[in-house]
Each structure stands twice: as structure tokens, then as C-alpha cells.
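User: Can you recover a sequence for this backbone? Please restate the input before giving your answer.

Assistant: Of course. Working from this structure:
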């Protein structure tokens, strides 16, 4: 397995409150890694540190290393915008731009970041195909993005992230606002996407983590308690705290 992201001694704060404490972890290329743990344990902060979005928050601070293909994204002089082109993100609630059409939503990231593409229509179709949405919207591309259903809107946001051709896709509880049918479509999509992208997904749903991921990491109170192959984590965890969380004894 090839390491895509290596996290070394990662600490993070909001003001004086420390939310991540000494995280050490490898994330493997073209695999899906699930981040699990109770609410408030640092899951979202952790993935936001992987593309330098944590520092956008007021009084946020990071210490440690996040190596993307061996290069530290926190090294002096590294442009966070360039990092986010390589490491895209999909948020908890679908957030299409309300005044933009489906077409404009997909291509918005390219235009905002000044990325020039020879054939925009080709990139548009590729991105929507990649998000398993093309067949549903190809005849209504000029309708508002917010006219789509919740599940379609989330796949539209995935297409928007894919348009920038990232190498890593971060997903912060992408199904938490969706019904079971839309959730199943997103899970099927993750299964497809991990063939071409490195995926890190935060989820509070144990069954979902077991279904969609190759590796699972358990966080508790800002610390990485255990990480390993998903099957092992869910059937033979090494730490009692992991077993207690997975079996519902707390959390």
C-alpha cells in the first residue's frame, strides 16, 4: 500500500482549547479511510487539517506535519489554495451555490481559482459522470442547482470537487442530511470513487464505516485511539476503548 498522506504529531487548537493531540496516522492511496468517534472528538477538525481549512476558522492553530506525497503542506511558503486543489472537500450539508445553474455550480471552483480548461463541456460531463449524476441532469444543466433533491445536490457538490481533479477527496459526514435511498447512492459512489481517488470520510454511522471503508481510525477526545483495516477494527479491535465504542457502550 502506498502512503498518500502521512500525519505526524498533529496538534490543533481553537483559541486555548486543544482539540487534536499528537495524531500520528498514515492514509493510503486509492483507498477509503473512515474516521469514527463520538461527537466532539475532533473528527471534523482532523480532516479540515488535511487541506488547511482548519486555519480558516478564527483563532485556529495547527502544529505538526501533514505530508502529502512526502511534502509538508504546512511548510512555510506553501499556498493553501494549491493544497485545496489537490485535496478537495465535501461538507456535511449539500451547499450548491443558490444563484447558479447546475452547470455553473460544477464549474464554479475552476472559475474561482482561475483554472483554465481547454474544453469546459468535457470537464463538466466528466465531473458529473464521476459523481454519478450526468444521466439525471444532462438535459437540465441550466436549471438552478438548488432545484435538485437533497441527494442530487450532494452529488452535485461532489462533482464540483471532482472538476478540480483532486487527488484526495475529504467527506465530512456526507450522508447525515440525506434519506436512506440517497445515502445508498452516495455509498455506491464512494465505492466507485476510491478506485481513482484517496478518500477520507468522517461518519457517525458504524454500519456505513464498515460498508464503505478499507481502513478505519477511531478518535476519542482529540486522540487517535486505534487505526487499522476496517474488518479488524470492527471484529477484533486491539483496544478495549475501541471495542466499547463500536459495541455501543458509550458515545
Amino acid at each position: 500500500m502506498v502512503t498518500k498522506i502521512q500525519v505526524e504529531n498533529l496538534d490543533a487548537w481553537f483559541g486555548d482549547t486543544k482539540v487534536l493531540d499528537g495524531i500520528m496516522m498514515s492514509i493510503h492511496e486509492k483507498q477509503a479511510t473512515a474516521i469514527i468517534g463520538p461527537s466532539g472528538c475532533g473528527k471534523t477538525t482532523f480532516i479540515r487539517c488535511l487541506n488547511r481549512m482548519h486555519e480558516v476558522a478564527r483563532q485556529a492553530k495547527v502544529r505538526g506535519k501533514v505530508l502529502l506525497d512526502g511534502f509538508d503542506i504546512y511548510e512555510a511558503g506553501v499556498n493553501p489554495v494549491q493544497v485545496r486543489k489537490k485535496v478537495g472537500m465535501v461538507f456535511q450539508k449539500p451547499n450548491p451555490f443558490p444563484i447558479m445553474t447546475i452547470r455553473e455550480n460544477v464549474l464554479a471552483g475552476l472559475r474561482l481559482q482561475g483554472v483554465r480548461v481547454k474544453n469546459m463541456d468535457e470537464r463538466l460531463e466528466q465531473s458529473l459522470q464521476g459523481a454519478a449524476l450526468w444521466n439525471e441532469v444532462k438535459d437540465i444543466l441550466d436549471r438552478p442547482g438548488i432545484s435538485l433533491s437533497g441527494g442530487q445536490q450532494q452529488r452535485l457538490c461532489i462533482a464540483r470537487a471532482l472538476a478540480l481533479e483532486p487527488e484526495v477527496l475529504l467527506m465530512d459526514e456526507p450522508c447525515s442530511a440525506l434519506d436512506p435511498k440517497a445515502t445508498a447512492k452516495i455509498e455506491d459512489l464512494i465505492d466507485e470513487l476510491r478506485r481513482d481517488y484517496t478518500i477520507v470520510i468522517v461518519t457517525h454511522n458504524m454500519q456505513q464505516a464498515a460498508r464503505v471503508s478499507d481502513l478505519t481510525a477511531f478518535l476519542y477526545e482529540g486522540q487517535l485511539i486505534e487505526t487499522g483495516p476496517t474488518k479488524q477494527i470492527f471484529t477484533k479491535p486491539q483496544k478495549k476503548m475501541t471495542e466499547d465504542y463500536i459495541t455501543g457502550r458509550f458515545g
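That completes the design. Residues 180-193 form the longest helix (14 residues).
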